[in-house]
Specification:
Helix content is 31%, strand content 31%. The chain is globular. A four-stranded antiparallel beta sheet has the order 2-1-4-3. It is of the alpha+beta class. Strand 1 and strand 2 form a beta hairpin.
């Protein structure tokens, strides 16, 4: 079985706030998406140097998380 992996990059401000994060559902703030992912998939997060980090998920996991986090519940 061929599983497609996705890497979501996060970038932080000097104060620790999330300023940019990949695959964010429309209408969801970067910090809110990071908080949701940290709660639901924190075990696949890796801190990087320079105020960055990544979540490593399968495409299926990401799709399910995006649907669960969508502000309109879609």
């Amino acid at each position: 079985m061929d599983t497609q992996n996705v890497i979501l990059h996060a970038r932080f401000a000097p104060d620790g706030a999330v300023v940019e994060i990949g695959e964010r559902p429309e209408g969801l703030a970067p910090q809110a998406w990071f908080n949701f992912l940290s709660d639901k998939a924190g075990d696949v997060y890796q801190t990087l140097a320079g105020g960055r980090g990544v979540f490593r998920l399968t495409r299926e996991e990401l799709t399910a998380l995006k649907q669960a986090a969508a502000p309109d519940g879609a």
